[in-house]
Amino acid sequence: MPTLPLNELQITEKDPKTGKLRAVPALHPDQKADRCFVLYKPPPADNSPAQVDEYLERAAFIADDLDWLLALPHNKFWCQVIFDESLQKCLDSYLRYTPRKFDELAGPPSAVGEMQQRLHRSVFLTFLRMSTHKESKDHFISPCAFGEILYNNFLFDIPKMLDLCVLFGKGNQPLLQKMIENIFIQQPSYYSDLDETVPTILQVFSNILQQCGLQSEGASNEPQKLEEKVRMTPSAMPLQELRDVVLYLCDTATTLWAFLDVFPLACQTFQKHDFCSRLASFYEVSIPELEAAIKKRRREDSKLLADLWQRLSHSRKKLVEVFHILIYQICLLPILESSCDNIQPFIEDFLQLFSSVLQEKRFLRDYDELFPVADDVSLLQQASSALDETRTAYILQAVEGAWEGVDRRKAAVVKDLPPSKAPEQPAGPEPGPGAAPTRLKTEEEEEVGPAGPGHGLTVKDLLPDLGEGFILACLEHYDYSAEQVINNILEEGLAPALSSLDRSLNRYVGEGRGGRSEPGVRLGGQDVRDPPSRAGTKGEAHTSGQQVGQHGDYTALPNRGDEPGGGKNTHSRDGGNLAGWGQLSFLLKPLRPFTTPQVLRTKVPHEGLEEEEEEEEEEAEEEGPKPDHFVQDPAVLRERAEAQRMAYLARKGYRYDGSSAVTGNPRGHGQSRETTQERRRKEANKGARANHNRRLMADRKRTKGMIPS
Predict the structure, then answer these.
(1) Looking at the DSSP assignment, which residues form a beta bridge with residue 460?
(2) Which of these, 184, 319, 420, 498, could form a disulfide with 494 (CB 3.0-4.6 Å)?
(3) pLDDT higher than threshold 80 for residue 554
């Protein structure tokens, strides 16, 4: 006999009034046990003994009750869940008030931490069992009835699922993902609830902007009421109000990211409300203002400011990741999973989404730093041959434009660094909404400076009579811009501090401790050393960097051992002072003659391969014996050139199929697929060779001495 689902099952019991047996539904309020679940309260913030004892006692009651609930049989468990209102209030209170991951308590006692972990586990197991409609083949609820039970009794709703994702997502994501997906599968009405929830989330963004006295694009233009309080900007509001705004933003961003990360199928519903564009607009308006407000308050509560800075940085990252999840689920994932015939609508969605946020420079820059847009465009180019190159080029150009005036090196953004420990900035105007986030220099930047590894060599090659010390002083003064240095030297437009220096000034060779030359100096917290490939002989010691003063006097920078406590060594850049010019010392060593990098050359079609072939031929000629000027057999030269070409292609990974199928079968006997393909390839590529480059090849032979000039 097949087992009936719980929603159809009836049990036999005695009627308490008549004493006769009667059949009642298995899911009935009379089957509920009389048990009162108490409400949850979070651990105390001050860790006072009385409050800690109260928390432990209350949490123990809840944990014991939940353990009892989980031990009930299938029918008893569901009767308690459906008909016990105190249980639902208890679970709701835990979801609302339990500390989040970013709300770490200040050193709670070990007993509090252990009790919180026990309670955390029991609550998760309770919700996990509530989301499961089939526990075994004998204990289950029909899917249709299960969806109605969840929805009609408010066992789950969208706010509860948001809290579940942010509380239990880390470490339990596979289980939580199956749990949320099963709820939406068994009850599709939750999609309608989600669709009604998205405008509420967008309203949260508007509330934050309103609280900060800001107005995003598309905001209401209604006149302000007379009795309405004028909102202050983040820089002017009290510190506690700023704290409330940052906490509100952090909680919203983290919860939103956790939900979409666990349940990415919700992305389509979010995008129905143009969520990507509105998220980028909110980010562009709010984040720079909040950053500037925190940076301005250096003299206030440093501990609180450090916490706010960390939370704001966390919020920035989560908002960018939310945008990426939406882009990936809506556009990129369908492209990866679909055939070539069905990807065009998704490519169009991608181009449209990015075109709508190109004006948000700060957001675009932060997004491109975490998720390079060029990588996504490259994926589209590989997936479709009919990609609109004009639109993609426009998007990439806009991304590049967002980085103008900002160091794009992959340096670490100062996200978790509190303002009190951030690098001191020179006095100047406060950063505005478009200001770039503070960045820490990478080791590469500390070694070669912001101009890159080619500028010192360029100046030395073009102006060989100048001393290396003078060139380095000029580079430092003009922010390592070789072009400005060369122009100002040739036009006699150097700054007065540089004009007074001796132009034949060489680098000063200083001695370290004990009279020995140190291998490197400590600049800005980094050891500056020459790269191994550019160092001298194995026993050659490298001189330490020095500092050139305003009046040409030299003061050796202290070595690592000279710094008290290993502290950082900072130097002023004002008035032509040179801070750590030893960073560029290896750039002035005699190297190969300066040539324009290949990526910056103007390319001619079919030029790249021939140039590389010519370079290889030149290298072969340099290594081989000096040729006499006897004109060799052209057939031998052609065979040799073909052999060199095939060797080059083999090194590059090209596979050459020597079997030509162009000839094919006699007419009327049909041609094979390989023959057809070879004929098409020959027809398409015959313009690149044959008689179309006679002059080029004649010039090439003449330069090789094969044709008398």
Answers:
(1) none
(2) 498
(3) no
